[in-house]
Amino acid sequence: MSAILVVTELQNNEFKKSSFETVSQARRLADSLGQTVTALVIGSDVKAKAASLGEYGADQVLTAEDTKLENFNPDYYKTIVIEAVKKVSPEIVLFIATLQGRDLAPRVAAALETGLASDCTGLEVVDGSLEIEHPLYAGKVFAKLSLESPVKILSLRPGVFEAKMNGKQAVVNSLELPALESRIKIKEINKTGGDKLDVTEADIIVTGGRGVRSAENFKIIEELATVLNAAVGATRAVVDSEWRPHDEQVGQTGKVVSPSLYIMCGASGSIQHWAGMSGSKCIVAVNKDPEAPIIKRADYSIVGDLFEVVPALTQEIKKIKG
Amino acid sequence: MKIIVCLKQVPDTEANIKIDTNGKSISEAGIKFIINPYSEYAIEEAIRLKEAGKAESITAVSWGPERVSEALKTALAMGVDDVLLLKTDSYSVDSFATAGILAAKLKTMEYDLILMGKETIDDGSMQIGPMLSELLNIPCVTVVTKLDVDGEHVTVKREVEGGSEIIETSTPCIITCQKGLNEPRYPSIRGVMMAKKKQVTTEQVSFEGENLSINKLSYPAARSEGKVVGEGADAVAELVRLLREEAKVL
Lengths: 322, 250
Prior knowledge:
The structure holds two protein chains of two kinds.
Chain A: E1 3-7, E2 10-11, E3 14-15, H1 17-33, E4 36-43, H2 47-50, E5 60-65, H3 74-88, E6 90-96, H4 99-111, E7 116-120, E8 122-126, E9 129-136, E10 141-147, E11 152-156, E12 171-174, E13 185-190, E14 204-208, H5 218-228, E15 231-234, H6 236-240, E16 261-265, H7 271-277, E17 282-287, H8 293-297, E18 300-303, H9 306-321
Parallel strand pairs in A: 1-4, 1-6, 4-5, 5-12, 6-11, 7-11, 14-15, 14-16, 16-17, 17-18
Antiparallel strand pairs in A: 2-3, 8-9, 9-10
Helix pairs in contact in A: 3-4, 5-9
Chain B: E1 2-6, E2 9-11, E3 33-35, H1 37-51, E4 57-64, H2 68-78, E5 82-87, H3 95-106, E6 113-117, H4 128-136, E7 140-150, E8 153-160, E9 163-170, E10 173-177, H5 189-197, E11 200-204, E12 212-218, E13 227-231, H6 236-245
Parallel strand pairs in B: 1-4, 1-6, 4-5, 5-11, 6-10, 7-10
Antiparallel strand pairs in B: 2-3, 7-8, 8-9
């Protein structure tokens, strides 16, 4: 029986939610293709938590443990994934389309001389083959792709696919480690954001646009984000004005996001920004200009001064959250 | 030190993308093409290294149809020394096939440093840099916001989820460039005049071993018409009710 291999990811030594999403999708594909699911966990101390991937549908979990593997090193991680591929001979390998997964998957694909569909937002089995959805031009159009190589490698966008409890028991095995060599050296790791939620992985995003007017004024955006357990997003104008760091920029020259709730404060909704966030389930706009394009396109909008509306919204959310 | 910049020409971010009647590609009618914004950071960084006396030459390499010459002319006007177009008659969405034509050419060239954008804003695959790393067997660091080159020692700052890393490697290597690395210049009038005198070297190539292909393009599902909940802070309570009861996202 053929296998699907899932390359999972950890953050602060816990599984990212997208790891569960991707294992769940592997299960769904495996069930319709009659295959099994093997999840790969790479890190320095991962054995104890490995079995929890069974709950999301993994039949087997392979662990690769070494102090060298505590942090992402593309050379080491690539060697590990290729070793796992040799061991389970998968027909499909799923990565997560995070910065890490998008650095790693192409190396593995090139080493295996195979095709890679990255940042997939849809995945179906049609007549026994995969039909892959991938946004082009940051979501201005969507492509249905087919991948013909014997080993098919895909990376799935975080936050798009459902993480579904499945209640399976997984067998946990250790992967025998190959020799690990690297030509790069990690000198320093700066967690500037602490446990800051990345916009690509957040379920809710509160974005400020030019209408916020200054870096200091972003305090009210941050306060709303905090009560919602949301990530702060920014438009290009805001990042170019250096009010916010560029890792928060959403749009065609920033990040493409698809949270369940996207709240835009003081942003008009340019075509480039819209391309990056129009995949959000629900869009809310707060804008003082009733003619702003975003007022028509958002699911819900409030016409008004964001300096009054946003703090009021923060208070209201606090109230319901007790 | 010899630098190669790989760049791509893409539709302007302002462009309204229309699907062609074949349903599989976009219509190029009326579209303005630009240098991929992330490729511009790579060009700028190469020029700065040359200006700092750390690089002796910069060659920009691109691929695609004849119109890509325009992007290469712009790169010349910005300050690169030579340009090469790997001319293709077809479009490929398969980055491994694209990495293949680039690798085949790069293997015949001399380089110490290869700079390119961290991704292109058209297909957004983010694959070429790490794939070339494998095909050329040299290290690659992706999503770089700071680059220091000292002889063969290369130190970079790269963006990771929730922070950054400082990484050391050595030439030859590939660096993929992220916003924040620099502020790309506009070509000077003198640069534009100089570029006119230079040739775009063109070589015909074709994609081989494509595994990934487009079956169909479609527009994003239309969103249902939105609702103006009200004006000012008074509308907040109703908004929260709708988010909880109607949209069920809170």
